[in-house]
Design a protein that fits this description.
The protein is α/β, with parallel strands linked by helices. Helix content is 35%, strand content 15%. The mean pLDDT is 97.
Length: 391
């Protein structure tokens, strides 16, 4: 293939978006034919479906039996906000931020909740903060996998098992693709539309016994909206974790999530899902290693995400351009791939450094990653040739 020759093989599925993510292989709307539609979500059938969703989530993720698993409103954001507003303020807070969403949690904690005793541990895109600086006598707020930087924590070893504070973890692009260290996590949130490719608007909130104890022994000084209230009369509202959601869920989305969970079990459960994501990320890494014009935004291999892979353009003639010109180049490259119908929604996140962001989670097929990489080379070559001609 010469530099500007258009590749002949296209990905069968061009959906590499980091959220909502690709539907499972073989997905068909007929899978939703048993949805409990036109019925109350509080009917016996509706509650049974919701309960089944939490039970299957527990099984696939390996959530300990003494942790509570609930469905809450407003996707991962709603679940995480619920945790922050309900639990913080009892002690000082360490919040980690190395990408867009972590920085958003900093804003909520400092400017909205206005907690005074806050330490913000930050790092640039592509790096992790110094995890050794985290003080687990305080509450700790962090993302497990930084979706907009492609940087994840390598493990949970930096969290002391005998901690005094709570660990509150946004795991939305890690759950079902990375092994979460449950004994070291007190609150975990995620959304359906990430690794399993479910539909959006619903979040999952998982609470350890330590988190429940905090809820039942501490009342925050600020008012809580109804959709954030997890206690009544000083006790956790158990129904939230037993199929009685705080507000009305979409039973069509619930059916879609159940279908995704059933597929997860068919491919080997958590081990199978992690293996698929690792394979996909590995195929992309092999291409990056042999391709001089591109590199990982995540500098350390052990912190590179196996779901949201963020890439930067390292070609000297592009990398030397002003930041605005680099961003324009990356957008043009991504737009060209979109127009060709081979890669949808792979531009870097708006707040992140310019580049590409390619989802390699379990619902993506490795064969589609293999078909994508020649198109990446082609799109770069064409876009660069236009840059040279315009110079």
């Amino acid at each position: 293939m010469t530099e500007l020759t258009r590749p002949s093989v296209r990905p069968a599925n061009p959906h590499f978006s980091s959220g909502p993510c690709a539907k499972r292989p073989g997905y068909d709307l007929q899978a939703l034919s048993s949805a409990t539609l036109g019925r109350s979500h509080r009917s016996a059938e509706g509650k049974a479906k919701l309960r089944r969703a939490t039970e299957m989530s527990r099984i696939v993720l390996g959530v300990p039996e003494d942790y509570l698993v609930g469905i809450v409103p407003a996707s991962d954001t709603g679940a995480f906000e619920m945790a922050l507003w309900s639990l913080l303020g009892a002690r000082g807070v360490d919040v980690l931020a190395w990408e867009s969403f972590g920085k958003g949690w900093v804003t909520d904690i400092v400017k909205q909740l206005k907690i005074e005793d806050v330490r913000v541990l930050e790092a640039d895109y592509g790096e992790l903060p110094d995890l050794g600086q985290v003080d687990v006598s305080r509450d700790v707020v962090f993302t497990w996998n930084g979706t907009t930087s492609g940087v994840r924590v390598p493990d949970g070893d930096w969290i002391a098992p005998d901690r005094q504070g709570l660990t509150i973890c946004d795991a939305t692009s890690a759950a079902f693709a990375q092994r979460l260290d449950w004994p070291r996590l007190d609150v975990v949130t995620y959304s359906w539309q990430k690794v399993l490719g479910g539909e959006a608007q619903h979040g999952m909130l998982i609470l350890s016994p330590r988190a429940v104890e905090r809820l039942e022994s501490y009342t925050p000084p600020w008012p809580l909206p109804k959709i954030f209230r997890l206690t009544k009369g000083g006790k956790v509202i158990s129904g939230v974790f037993d199929g009685a959601t705080i507000n009305t869920p979409s039973m069509l989305c619930v059916e879609d999530y159940l279908d995704a969970l059933a597929w997860a079990q068919r491919v080997g459960g958590l081990d199978g899902l992690i293996a698929r994501a690792d394979t996909n990320a590995g195929r992309l890494a092999e291409w990056v290693e042999r391709t001089p014009w591109v590199g990982f935004l995540a500098s350390a291999p052990e912190t590179r995400s196996n779901t949201s892979v963020c890439l930067k353009i390292e070609d000297p003639e592009v990398a030397c351009l002003p930041a605005e010109a680099q961003a324009a180049f990356a957008k043009k490259l991504a737009a060209r791939l979109d127009a060709e119908g081979v890669a949808k929604d792979i531009g870097s996140y708006r707040d992140a450094p310019p580049g590409l962001r390619i989802w390699t989670g379990a619902t993506v097929e490795a064969s589609d990653i293999d078909a994508l990489t020649p198109w990446l080379d082609w799109a770069f070559a064409v876009t660069k040739s236009e840059l040279v001609e315009a110079a």
